[in-house]
Amino acid sequence: MSLDGRTALITGGASGIGRAIALRLADAGANVAVLDLKLDGARAVAGAVASTGRRAIAVQVDVGDAASVARAVAEARGALGAIHVLVNSAGIADFVPLGDLDEERWQRMLNVHLNGTYRVTRAVFADMTAAGWGRIVNIASAAALNGGGPGLAHYAAAKAGIIGFTKALAHELGPSGVTVNAIAPGLIDTPLIHGAGAPAGLYDTVVARLPVRRIGQPEDIAAACAYLVSDEAGFCTGQVLSPNGGANI
Ligand SMILES: NC(=O)c1ccc[n+]([C@@H]2O[C@H](COP(=O)([O-])OP(=O)(O)OC[C@H]3O[C@@H](n4cnc5c(N)ncnc54)[C@H](O)[C@@H]3O)[C@@H](O)[C@H]2O)c1
Description:
Layout: E1 7-11, H1 16-27, E2 31-36, H2 39-50, E3 56-60, H3 66-80, E4 85-88, H4 103-131, E5 134-139, H5 143-146, H6 153-173, E6 178-183, H7 191-194, H8 202-209, H9 218-228, E7 240-241
Parallel strand pairs: 1-2, 1-4, 2-3, 4-5, 5-6, 6-7
Helix pairs in contact: 1-2, 1-9, 3-4, 4-6
This protein binds nicotinamide-adenine-dinucleotide.
């Protein structure tokens, strides 16, 4: 597959899954705009992309803030031109039982994941419809499909919302040559999980019951994403691809 001449914008591109996707799409030929709350991390990834000979820019963004998204997308477009591929990967996680899940925590989770995905997609999609070709991949979660576990009601709800958004947009944008798909990863070894206050022994418990007997890596998700953004995936839209080691079969 080749993404030569295409430009990809990746939110959450400084770390974990977004970082692996940025490097994988650059490897396939894409120029990459790395957007993240953490500018230093985004710069490091953009530097790694540029070292492969592709064009890259790091832009600070808070996907939870509409003005920040508008500014960041304009900066990315100004530097690299029209966007052909969008990957919404920015995200946060914590484990909060319902009794402690106050309005502020609930709204924060929905704002970053669901509203953030909506904001960035809305700021970018017209480039794709104008070009008659585009690829949007939203990083959801297996938690949207199976609830994840105790303390993840806000996270699972936000991710399930992303899947609904993905499917509706697939209907709307398909006639313009734009596919919209979601990836629903199982447990992946990234800083998100380490910092989320996960229950002790989570990895061991999960791995022991996974048919593949290993924890997922960001590259497992990048491989799925590389397929979904390829020309070859033009018949695949409105789908939820869930690389999860067999956790949900
Ligand atoms: N790691 C997993 O097990 C797992 C499983 C399923 C889904 N996911 C999803 O994958 C995506 C990537 O997560 P990850 O595991 O790579 O985590 P990560 O923490 O390594 O990366 C997330 C990135 O998003 C950025 N970010 C957070 N809030 C932001 C905001 N408001 N604006 C812009 N950037 C922001 C962070 O700075 C970070 O660089 C998330 O949407 C997450 O929910 C992760």
